[in-house]
Amino acid sequence: MKKIVKIFHLLNLHYKLKKHGVIYGKKLRGNRISLKNIGNIQIGDSVSLNSYPDGDIYKTGLLTHYKDSIIVIGNNCNLNGTMIHCNSSVSIGSFCMFGPGTKIVDNDSHRVSTDITERRKVPKSNPITIEDNVWIGMNSLVLKGVNIGKNSIVAANSVVTKNVPENVLVAGNPAKIIKAITV
């Protein structure tokens, strides 16, 4: 019975992605996701889009909010209960892993003002780039304009507000370099 449910979720995922015009590669895996594609979403080969448990608590979501918004996910990535909100650009390299509850947001969500009209204007956005082989721990938040260098690790519950160089472990709020990662 579990195998039938798994197949149903996978077929539903493929249908949903095609319906929303998402371009995706071979060997896509996953279950229930949130999807809003006003812009462009491109997913590489052997990508896993999972919501746990079955989408009840940690839901994976890919959301482009404007026509020129773009989300690109490289090959062999695992998004586990990860939400991506994109107004401009979110680029994820290959072999990246994201823990449950991770949020990637390339915009401020709203403007800061006491004026109601100003607050409802399009929020400021800056592209996010996550290079190859990056691991982001559960419940982390990656904010606009950030570049995370290849082979870096973001510890659980971290808030990434500034660029992260290659081959480092960062942690905290705001995330700071804890140590260099060597082979």
SSE map:
Elements: H1 2-19, E1 23-24, E2 29-30, E3 33-37, E4 40-43, E5 48-50, E6 60-64, E7 70-73, E8 78-80, E9 83-86, E10 89-92, E11 97-98, E12 103-105, H2 116-119, E13 128-130, E14 135-136, E15 141-142, E16 147-148, E17 153-154, E18 159-160, E19 168-171, E20 176-180
What does this entry look like structurally?
With 183 residues, the protein is mainly β. The protein is 12% helix and 34% strand. The protein has an eight-stranded mixed β-sheet. A six-stranded parallel β-sheet has the order 1-4-7-10-13-16, with no helix packed on it.
| Main sheet record | 8 strands, mixed
Globular, elongated, flat, extended or rod-shaped: what is the shape? globular
SS-based structural class?
mainly beta
Uncertain segments: none
What is the H-and-E element order?
Answer: HEEEEEEEEEEEEHEEEEEEEE
Number of E-state strands: 20
Measured between the Cα atoms of the first and last residue, the distance is 43 Å
Query: What spatial order of strands do you see in the largest sheet?
Result: 2-5-8-11-14-17-19-20
* Count, helices: 2
- Helicity level, as a percent range? 10-25%
Residue fraction in strands: 25-35%
**Radius of gyration over alpha carbons?**
16 Å
- Please, what is the average pLDDT? 90
